[in-house]
Amino acid sequence: MAEAAARRRARGGGGAARRAERTAVSVETAKYIERNIPLYEPLNEETLEIIEANAETVLAEVGVNFVNNPAALDRWRDAGAEIDGERVRIPRGLARKLCETAPSRILQHARNPERNVEIGGDTLVCAPVYGPPFVRDMDGGRRYATMEDFHKFVKLGYMSKWLHHSGGTVCEPTDVPVNKRHLDMLLAHMTLSDKPFMGSVTEPSRAQDSVEMCEILFGREFVQENTVMTSLINVNSPLTFDDVMMGALEVYARNNQACIISPFIVGGAMAPTSVVGTLTQVLAEVLAGIAYSQLIRPGAPVIFGAFVTSIDMNSGAPTFGTPEASLILYGAGQLARRMGLPYRSGGGLCGSKLPDAQAGYEAAHTHNAVLLGGVNFMLHACGWLEGGLVSSFEKFVMDADQLGVLHHMARGVAADENGQAMDAIREVGPGGHYLGCAHTQANFKTAFWRTDLLDYKPYETWEEEGARDTMTLANLRMRRLLDSYQQPALDPAIAEALDDYVARKKASMPDAFI
Amino acid sequence: MAEAAARRRARGGGGAARRAERTAVSVETAKYIERNIPLYEPLNEETLEIIEANAETVLAEVGVNFVNNPAALDRWRDAGAEIDGERVRIPRGLARKLCETAPSRILQHARNPERNVEIGGDTLVCAPVYGPPFVRDMDGGRRYATMEDFHKFVKLGYMSKWLHHSGGTVCEPTDVPVNKRHLDMLLAHMTLSDKPFMGSVTEPSRAQDSVEMCEILFGREFVQENTVMTSLINVNSPLTFDDVMMGALEVYARNNQACIISPFIVGGAMAPTSVVGTLTQVLAEVLAGIAYSQLIRPGAPVIFGAFVTSIDMNSGAPTFGTPEASLILYGAGQLARRMGLPYRSGGGLCGSKLPDAQAGYEAAHTHNAVLLGGVNFMLHACGWLEGGLVSSFEKFVMDADQLGVLHHMARGVAADENGQAMDAIREVGPGGHYLGCAHTQANFKTAFWRTDLLDYKPYETWEEEGARDTMTLANLRMRRLLDSYQQPALDPAIAEALDDYVARKKASMPDAFI
């Protein structure tokens, strides 16, 4: 309450803002998932202890590289690490000790407080695909992504009931100069949606711009005291932290903004082929990265990230939704919880070129592992195609619909009197049917998950309507959603200030395209 | 060893048989899954106890109907149940007590002893789709199934590495009279494959025919002493046991052949809308059915079955791969294990009309629940389409490929020295890559599950090759498999005796088509 009031004060805004708020169309968004089911933990205590001991050995004996970052080396030296060139060897226990100041749960604020999310404990927050340079839909095929595509994805995310987060680089808008596109992307998240979002990490200065735009949107003091962005810091696996990502991390940590410290691993290429070996490297990298964030600012909010997939050893292609990736996802979750940290992994992953059966199998495998594996922040929850090269419009709405499955699974099993339904069993008896009984009448609206997309029609109806596959149905739904999109209200003074900031920043530098 | 020798003796066979065996093409079949991972058990002790207590209440107060089956009523009366018309009310604890003589693990023999399967404990045996009257492929579309289709599915099952079982009615061959088709179906399983199979349940006399054909294949004594068929006895939910299914069960139980006692439930129509209510009814039905099997022959091998899905409350259509169905699948597994019984549930289920993304999502949800939920016998593991109305050739090979995912997941996580891979991490170090390191070279062939179907190619290659979706790739693979099919060797004397039996039986009755 106090926060909302503070935000309103910070925003200022007068009659126009209030009018805009009154006329806003309400878009339903489910609360982030709070699991009422146990987790699946396939690694036993002995295996977890081996991984933890080996990760300390890796940090102490092999070490990690902090590249082009003399200040980072100084910080590590001061903290007690051994520095050799750019190599940082971290004595046993030091990194884990430093990680202890990181919070176990993060409240990320949205500009609409109803869309705030909590990341940690039993929660699962779903955010869309991140990073692809291409987009695909049935209408235009596969092509380089543009800012227009980016806008469409933000709008679809805003309208997706089961998606809690607007994400970050939902696609890479290649028609905007590379040094300016972060401004347009942030502006889109801030104005076309009211869900929480991610900041830029491609340069420390762009992270700083992200903070400054949030200060306009949320108020300067509010940003310093609260988390309003969760940003993605990838580790250059194996065991390398580059200056760009670390520079962005430094900006965010100093400003109390959340970062995901995320090894990005194609197993067999950037980590060993084995599950335990890969988890050892993941843990070493996360320990080093999160420890470093706490050297910048003790208490800075961070998330234990793991984006791990495996390689097709014949072609060298990355593969997704594979059993080895699932086991690593489960294991990394166990390791994160033992550190008391929020956990991020990928969801909706697939290697398929099309949103077809392969995409469905692979995405469902990952979705299931994410839910049962205790992930708190699921990036790529919807829209990911072709190993992350493509943001697919059809797969976006297909996956977004599937996220409802996870919400309903997470509700678990009610064993109260209504759940037991003994009256219904008595009422119906042998040979009867339940469609009309009192219990069914009272429960049918909420009893079962209902798709907004998939086909359950009789065969004859389905055929009369054109025998459409899921991709075709998703294309229709995507276009209907975009047609009915209405922008959420925003104080015009804030909108203007954001526009001014973006225009000023863009004018201050020449275009760059690499 | 003794069994194999006994079988060879029982079969007889001479030089021709031995020659046939020598020239047989070897088709690789993976051993049934033995899980090296924990199970997922979302229901807590209190909920399980409520379900168990309520199921006893249902049996004692509501009771079950045994229809058109005076002998069954006599058996129940003798056992201590209260009979009222066709209603059987079973005193608390009686059914559970009767179930105690059922074995916890079943060894089902195949004519090729290498293909024997164990059903129970930590195992998972995969069997194909069962029951659809239609088939579909890209070449011929959707159409009524014929015996030619049936033969193709049996051949595909024989050639599918991850499929352990040939199944039963892989499709319903509608071009053969209904009273004779079981003969042709069994003959196909016995001669076109050497994997274990299921018997006919559509009439008690057809169950008897199944037993007699097995006596020809395995030898009469062998059949009386060993399980050579696992057959599907559906309960007419709610709480009704019809004379046809019970008649078949009686034949199989008397002959020591395994039956799955399986409530077939569309939740909301044939059971309450709630998970706990549905599980209560499932347990009551299984308790009554398995108890009845033990009244026929104490020690008769039986499987706790549960085929449960939910309904789309708007259209009344059954839905598949839904979260409620998964929770019921997990819960039923917990109940089965508490009874010490093998557990059967469905896998690869979907409501989709096509093997598209919907089919992929839904089948993967069910596959995952089956693996983690402790299912011992997965019927419909591959080929199920359109809510079970259609056996799909393309989905058969798609799902069959996916079963490899389950095999690899079930291997779990090795934490030995090779699994730890510390030498590799030391060898590669920060910034290196693992592709060429010694550990990768030693492990890459077996480290990761490899698809025989899905596409991992570079985009450009994929496009040059025709931009094929998964269905198209599956169609190609299906045709390639059928082109390279070679019949497994069978003693010609046995083959002739089987042919004679079928011809004689067919000649003994007029054709019937309903």
TrEMBL record, chains A, B:
Leading EC class: transferase
Catalytic activity, EC: 2.1.1.-
Chain segments carrying region Disordered: 1-21
Listed GO MF terms: methyltransferase activity
GO biological process: methanogenesis; methylation
Keywords assigned by UniProt, alphabetized: Methyltransferase, Transferase
Pfam families linked: MTTB
Similarity remark: Belongs to the trimethylamine methyltransferase family.
Protein name, per record: Methyltransferase
Species this chain originates from: Roseovarius spongiae
